[in-house]
Amino acid sequence: MLLDLIGALAAGLGLLGLVLLVNRVLLRGRIGRWIYPATVALGMVSYTIWAEYTWADRTITAMPQLELARESGSPAFYRPWSYVFPRTTRMIAIDRSQTRTHPEQPGLVMTRVVLIGRWEPVRAVTVVYDCRAPARADLVEGVNLNADGTLEGATWVPVEADDPVLAAACAAQEEGSDEPANGA
Predict the structure, then answer these.
(1) Contact criterion met (CB below 8 Å) for 52 and 87
(2) With 90 as the cut, is the pLDDT of residue 31 above it?
């Protein structure tokens, strides 16, 4: 949040410097002094809108091991343009570097699901997906991963067959099935 404030101030002051230079040198002061605070405001608002609408892409690009599975957001009454141009406020991604399968359990894939929210700390949970019978089991305390790739003490939660997180995890499993270090 502090970096966004600094970025907004820098954008406003940078635009102010440009307008100040143009007004004084090229236009010889023909534009009134009202242009200076208006320029700072325009620069700060423009930067803020840019930062809000691009943070999701910038975040995923900064972490190449993540594959975006789902993004969502909600409009806000104090941002009426968000009803027309929705912005992303939450994302769910899988960490491809933490995706594993077991040779004896070809339908199961273990991956780390990363939950990212705007102005929220990043959270991650390790999940096992059953790609054949669409279901998931969170690897929490009390769940044991056996040597043969089965889970003991897990609670399987059914998921929709078209769930984007399930699809991303199963696609990562299929792509990684040719790799030699594939076992869990």
Answers:
(1) yes
(2) no
